[in-house]
Amino acid sequence: MVNLKARIIGWFGYGYRRQLSSYHLHIFRLLACILAVYQIWSVIWGKLDPLNQMALHLSGILAIAFLLYGYSRKAHECKTTENPTWIDYTAVLLVILAGVYFSMHAERISVRIPIMDPLTTLDLFFGLVFIVLAIEAARRTMGFPIIAIVLAGFSYIFFGHYLPGIWQHREFSFTEVMHELAFSYNGLWGSPVSVAATFVFMFLLFGAFLKQAGAGEFFFQLSTAIAGRTRGGAAKVAVLTSAFFGSISGSPTANVVATGSFTIPVSKKSGYKPSVAAGIEAAASTGGSILPPIMGSSAFLMAAVTQIPYGMIALAATIPAILYYVSLLLMVHLEAVRSDMPRPKEENIPDIKKVLKEGWYHVIPFIVLMYFLIQGYSASRTGFYAILAIIVVSWFRRETRIGFKATIQALVDGAKSSIPVTAACAVAGLIITAIMSTGLGGKLTSIVLGLTSGLLIPTLLLVMIICIVLGMGMPVAAAYILTAMLAAPALIELGVQPMAAHLFIVYFSIFSAITPPVAVAAYAAAGIAEENPNRVGLEAVKLGIVGFIIPFMFVLEPALLLDGSIGEIVLAVLTALLGIVALTGAMIGWLVTSATVLDRILLLSSGCLFVFPSIILNIAGLVLVLFVFFMQRGSREQVPRTIQ
């Protein structure tokens, strides 16, 4: 009875990640490895129908999801077995059968005309299997919030014809809804799952192979060699290391867990408060998802939604990403100067020449990646070539060689890390169907523009809030897809370029990971630092504040996305850097010396003025920041140094 109650209550929360053992672990590893090998074959050599390829991918992902993730934390706390139960294996068998069924009937389903070829009983059964079990897998991996949105979408499809006014739509039959959800290139088989089954999976494998090759240790040592000697060097190492890892993993939370376990304790020992050390890690890890060449899964989804080549997206996102990390490094430096932290001991810093000599070859896969992207190869094929490059260069040293066992482990790790992404994409496709089939997407564009009176800045602010709120309850990929469907048309209608509009949404979908009250990356960092999560979240927002400003800058000034002449791009970067200096000085309370309240107000005003691409406003901003600079410089020798 207690267990049944726990299961019922547990459905409204998260599942839990199991520690598999015995034959259960062997079954999981076998299925994960088969899935990874199939994925590589299907996107590189296979000539499968898209529906065929996606059905087998989703089937494999759901199968390993039910083995790895348990039903609920509540049930687990009530002594439910750690290993999968017969219920989990039944779900595994059902999704495998569903995948085989859709694969066998892929050609018929792809070309069927609903009126002439109605759905059969088996069609409906296996369609329901995919829909229900995709929702359950998403709940186990991401919690109930995203499921609540799915259920709201389904309620709107079936009962929206009863609503009055603009919210009303025509009545849908059950068969029509099933056709849209599972038997068309919408719903489960829309662009989200298509991207998850190709680009995203291949780059997650790329990250897994990099880890097996020891690239993580190399990038940590390189970061330490570059920034370790400077004041606040430990935190700067955390920033650079998280940037490298984040670009590979694409997940802010995973990045915090992977790098924060050693960067946060080191930052605390060097003198940073626990909340600041954790905030630095959270902000730096979150920024990795906007850093080319890999970025996060949302960038691949953006390529699918906008039909803009991924290489162009990565190129356009380069300057904003660099500006963000420049601001974060400057924040860390000014905090170290303000707190008068000592420089690290020289004997603890590795020699950069030695680090590069021992691990320079880890950079080769990234060069291969950028080369093939620039040459116009597909992201999937580019990822595959980069994986081959990792395997080849790993043999340059005996300690890093990727043999058979390491290859198997990388394949399993890649499949494992793709579970939450694919589950999120599957349910996001279901939500998109509810939005688009009922005409809600077009209506919401009118509603958004009506609320903001068609003014650009208020519309941008409203879209920002939507992204952050959605991002609090679901993964970045799902938050981006939904906001892109709901709000991107409104921005484009106001004259914003598609690249800028969608990158704006990508940024805020990502930065929701450090925005309280539900800041998942900050929560993960807080656990490592043993600090209050809300305090860490506020610190992360303060340190990453420029990340919330940059999207407005590139929407108003497309030259930051390399859309303009060389002169325009250089001028845009210079004004952005000046704005960053002003904003970081205002947030930390230090420029040349300790800043007064008036100094901080003037610096904040200056930073805001640099957001707008206006010569008059930029000159006014420059005057303000120079005024504060010279006033502080003049008073530096007269006023004793204080920490505020």
Structural descriptors:
1% strand, globular, 644 residues, mainly alpha
Which parts are unreliable, with pLDDT below 50 for 5 consecutive residues or more?
640-644
Helix tally?
Answer: 33
State the major sheet.
Answer: 2 strands, antiparallel
Structural shape:
globular
Rounded mean pLDDT score: 84
- What oligomeric state do the depicted chains represent? single chain
Based on secondary structure, the structural category is: mainly alpha
Task: Please estimate the helix content.
Answer: over 70%
What does the model show?
It is a single chain. The protein has 644 residues and is mainly α. The chain contains 33 helices and 2 strands. The chain has a two-stranded antiparallel sheet with strand order 1-2. The protein is globular. The model is unreliable at 640-644 (pLDDT under 50).
